[in-house]
């Protein structure tokens, strides 16, 4: 119930904007419409791909195991129209009926919840499974912010010969090639992304990081989306904090360490900049920048004094990877959230010392003592 209320609240925030562009006259989705199957749109199969002579919409209608997905999409003409237009190019991630059975929905939810949910399963361009294996994220047709500047994304993870989406949903075979794009069966519904604060709180691996954000009150900034549009959070895991050692942790979370803990937490948060492994949203300049290998991006952290993080895009097993300060590679990049992105790291990011900064050396090479940490964090304290 709590997750539903959070999702409904997010949807309600954009209701006025959605209504202003005159979507169809839809109020509530109160029933499933059983779509009548077509006689046939299947042509032939080649290299594990079923080739069809129909549109994506016709393929969707023709698959009995996609009846629930077709029912939702079919209630929105503004979604059916592009899927049924031969000269467009789209990709559909279609949850099977079994996938819907694994989720809990209030089926009498307002119509705008379902159009947002369906939109999050449609991506511009034709993306084969092979193409998805080389990507870090995929943009969808769902708006990612209330200003409609950028599109919400889905993260992709290569899993043997298949692809996982948002670390949850796996693409099933065979993929469906229509005249206007690709359709992929998926075994879980791609639920609308939660907020940064909710994902961090609900993930046990970030328990220590969440404690640090709360104690230092940096969580107030992270949680309050009215203070920023989009954000990038580099979230150290519990194991990362454990690597700091008992003495350093006792100092940071004990009397006298409050200011240094706050500086350290601020160094892991970037407001108004959302950087995925393959695309960068600069919200203040209203720019979207595609990232390529060897690109270096400097991200301004919340830490006072203009302390930035350098981010380099590398290739790991054909997929883009994120390397921070030329020293730490994100262990679980592109955790998609409603208000930005989270990158899990297995090492706490330590700012460089003055000489290291001059020499362009990474900031994580330090001797592990409390005194050394204090020296590194002192310039970040107001």
The CATH superfamily label of the largest domain reads FAS1 domain
Note the gap between the termini.
42 Å
Strand content: 25-35%
Shape: elongated
Structural class: alpha+beta
Give the C-alpha Rg.
Answer: 23 Å
Q: Which architecture of the largest domain per CATH?
A: Roll
What is the level 1 CATH name of the largest domain? Answer: Mainly Beta
How many separate domains make up the residues? 2
- Give me the CATH fold name of the largest domain: FAS1 domain
Low confidence ranges: 11-40
The proportion of residues forming helix, as a percent range, comes to: 25-40%
Organism: Penicilliopsis zonata CBS 506.65
Domain FAS1: 53-190, 193-349
Pfam families: Fasciclin (PF02469)
Protein name: FAS1 domain-containing protein
How would you portray this structure in words?
With 382 residues, this protein is an alpha+beta fold. The chain has 2 domains: 2-186, FAS1 domain, CATH 2.30.180.10; 196-380, FAS1 domain (Roll). The protein has 16 helices and 20 strands. The strands form 4 sheets. Strands 1, 2, 3, 4, 5, 6, 7, 8 and 9 form a 9-stranded mixed beta sheet that branches. Strands 11-10-20-19 form a 4-stranded mixed beta sheet. Strands 15-16-17-18 form a 4-stranded antiparallel beta sheet, with no helix packed on it. Helix 10 crosses helix 14 (258-266). The longest helix is centred in the N-terminal third of the chain and has 12 residues, at 2-13. It starts with a helix and ends in a 5-residue tail after the last helix. The model is unreliable at 11-40 (pLDDT under 50). Residues 53-190, 193-349 form the FAS1 domain. Pfam families: Fasciclin. InterPro entries: Adhesion/Biosynth-related, FAS1_dom_sf, FAS1_domain. This is FAS1 domain-containing protein.
